[in-house]
Amino acid sequence: MLDLQDLYQEVIVDHNKHPRNFHRMEDANRTAEGFNPLCGDRLNVYMKVVDGVIQDVSFEASGCAISVASASMMTQQLKGKTEQEADTLFHHFQDMVTADADAPVDAGQVGKLAALAGVRRFPMRVKCATLCWHTLKAAQAQKPQAATTE
Ligand code: ZN
Known about the structure:
Blueprint: H1 4-7, H2 10-17, E1 30-36, E2 41-50, E3 53-62, H3 65-78, H4 83-98, H5 107-110, H6 123-140
Antiparallel strand pairs: 1-2, 2-3
The structure holds zinc ion.
């Protein structure tokens, strides 16, 4: 049952057309750049992390609908969460999109991100959906940038 309508649900189309938190963040203290060569998706993630809490998160991207929608939905889920909670959500999300097509989706674990479960039927698109999360991990791994006069 490879139905593209499964993949491009209304909510994904909406997030792609009107991505949330889609802007550069000038006072971010963690940033990273991500690239998915399989599809050509590129994105930048910006975060403001204070005492282990994600105060703000935004992104810029040029890529397919799935990569943009996934990043948009990710930023909505992460604001106000601790880095630990973000990590847990990442693992639940990763499990969901790589599970068997028939496996149940636990919306209690992934919340609105459940809308992206359809990508599991399209192995090539899993990387589109997880690119933002891998980029987030890269940003989290960074040390806060020291002030500079440049
Ligand atoms: Zn893509």
